[in-house]
Design goal:
By secondary structure, the chain is of the alpha/beta class. Helices cover about 35% and strands about 20% of the residues. The strands form four sheets. The protein has an eight-stranded parallel barrel, surrounded by five helices. The protein is globular, with a radius of gyration of 19 Å.
Length: about 325
């Protein structure tokens, strides 16, 4: 699978990445055998970028991903995790986590973007994964913590990067404006942009993507299906958009895009996966993958040929913004 380098670093990512939130029992239980088989299937398909976080399943995702990768040659893959949520003992457990993961809540999340918090979080991640290093570390959802994130956490990560302890640093969020600030005002190498450069939302063109181009930095795209509305060939009423029920006008727009995709011999989810690569600063699309079957579907969608004429038609019909780049940023056929 084609790889692209995070600019100004030695870290390269495959175009398609494995998002490990779902193997941390996001929304439902994933048996450990399924989780391991999913990682193995991703490896066999050529995926070499794996993303996790302490937040995902209160550490379960990190544990499972580390166990599945531990026997693999360490220099052949890239793993990222995140800082900002420390896992601490929960003095008042209710039995099950309340933030979307089907796990016991013996631990709870504690926001902490301090220097000590960052160092402790990385140490805890290394212990949970059992790996010798983490290649990329992102600040995780620092929306309400700009000052501490920019003034304490990012300089701490920059020191570790400059010492060779980690390979690249950045931030990951569901908004684009603050990610642009991290690219412009801090030592971040790469940002993880969730849902803001998709077939239904190109707001990243207003801030974070120009910032990445201006400063020669890189972007990883996640949430490319916008919580599901773009995940099926024919979107329907009742599907989700950004974690909520999709408004009828967005369902209609997604259906219109799907119909244009059909005229070009492709499908809506395949186009949704390919679309972020229209921008030259986006080097990777990462998707959650729970089972080997999901891995196979995602790899198949990634491998579909998407003619450049599709983007031309979508622009001409006003279904995507007119300032979407005219040619894809990658050379895959």
């Amino acid at each position: 699978m084609h790889q692209q380098k995070i600019q100004h670093t030695s870290v390269s990512l495959t175009e398609l990445g494995f998002g490990a939130s779902v193997i941390g029992n996001l929304y439902r239980v994933t048996p450990v055998d399924d989780a391991t088989a999913a990682v193995d299937a991703a490896w066999d398909a050529g995926i070499r970028y794996f993303d996790t976080a302490p937040h995902y399943g209160l550490g379960l995702s990190e544990q499972r991903l580390g166990a599945a990768l531990r026997h693999r040659p360490r220099d052949e893959y890239v793993i990222s995790s995140k800082v900002g949520r420390l896992l601490v003992p929960n003095e008042e457990p209710h039995g099950v986590d309340t933030e979307g993961f089907v796990v016991r809540d013996d631990l709870r999340r504690q926001w902490d973007f301090s220097r000590d918090g960052v160092l402790r979080s990385i140490e805890d991640t290394l212990e949970r994964t059992g790996l010798d290093r983490i290649d990329i570390v992102y600040l995780h959802d620092p929306d309400d913590h700009w000052q501490q994130g920019a003034e304490e956490a990012m300089p701490t990560l920059a020191e570790l990067r400059d010492q060779g302890v980690i390979g690249a640093i950045g931030a990951g969020m569901n908004q684009s404006a603050m990610l642009a600030r991290f690219l412009r005002e801090t030592a971040a190498d790469v940002v993880m942009l969730a849902g803001r450069y998709t077939l239904l939302d190109q707001s990243g063109l207003d801030d974070v993507l120009p910032a990445a181009q201006e400063h020669g930095k890189s972007v990883v795209a996640v949430g490319v299906f916008n919580s599901g509305l773009l995940s099926l060939d024919r979107p329907a009423k009742g599907m989700k958009y950004d974690y909520q029920d999709a408004p009828p006008e967005l369902v209609a727009r997604a259906l219109a895009i799907a119909e244009v995709c059909e005229t070009h011999g492709t499908t809506l989810p395949a186009a949704a996966m390919a679309f972020p690569h229209t921008h030259p600063s986006i080097i990777n699309v990462t998707l959650g993958m729970r089972t080997p079957e999901q891995v196979g579907r995602n790899v198949g969608l990634h491998d579909q040929h998407i003619p450049d004429g599709l983007w031309d038609d979508l622009r001409a019909q006003g279904l995507i913004r007119s300032d979407v780049p005219a040619e894809r940023g990658r050379g895959r056929e």
